[in-house]
């Protein structure tokens, strides 16, 4: 299985299916990515659904 690490872009050609740090090449890259999430270095640039825009949710019918 081929893996391209999203952190360092390293290519691993022969990673087993149960490769622990997948999709990363190592635990170091996996922890660096986690640190970026925890430090809020990654952000969602726009609302992910209509409710984030302030629209009302659809009404549900009660039976």
The CATH class of the domain at 3-42, by name, is: Alpha Beta
> Which H/E pattern describes the elements?
EEH
Low-confidence runs:
none
Mean pLDDT level:
84
Considering the protein shown, what is the CATH homologous superfamily of the domain at 3-42? Erythroid Transcription Factor GATA-1, subunit A
Structural class estimated from helices and strands? alpha+beta
Terminal-residue CA separation? 50 Å
- Biggest sheet character: 2 strands, antiparallel
Tell me the radius of gyration: 19 Å
Query: What share of residues is helical?
Result: 10-25%
- The count of helical stretches stands at 1
Number of extended strands: 2
Shape: elongated
Strand content: 5-15%
Please tell me the CATH architecture of the domain at 3-42 by its name.
2-Layer Sandwich
CATH structural fold name of the domain at 3-42: Erythroid Transcription Factor GATA-1, Chain A
- Read across the widest sheet, the strand sequence of neighbours is 1-2
List the defining traits of the structure above.
two-stranded antiparallel ribbon, 6% strand, alpha+beta, elongated, 63 residues, Erythroid Transcription Factor GATA-1, Chain A
Report on this model:
The chain is of the alpha+beta class and 63 residues long. The chain has a domain at 3-42: Erythroid Transcription Factor GATA-1, subunit A (Erythroid Transcription Factor GATA-1, Chain A, 2-Layer Sandwich). The chain has one helix at residues 27-38; strands at residues 3-4, 11-12. The protein has a two-stranded antiparallel sheet. The N and C termini lie far apart (50 Å). The mean pLDDT is 84.
């Amino acid at each position: 299985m081929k893996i391209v690490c999203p952190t360092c872009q390293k290519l691993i050609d022969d990673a087993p299916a149960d490769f622990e740090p997948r999709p990363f090449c190592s635990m170091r890259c996996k922890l660096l990515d986690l640190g970026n999430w925890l430090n809020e270095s990654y952000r969602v640039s726009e609302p992910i659904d209509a409710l984030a825009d302030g629209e009302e949710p659809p009404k549900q019918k009660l039976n």
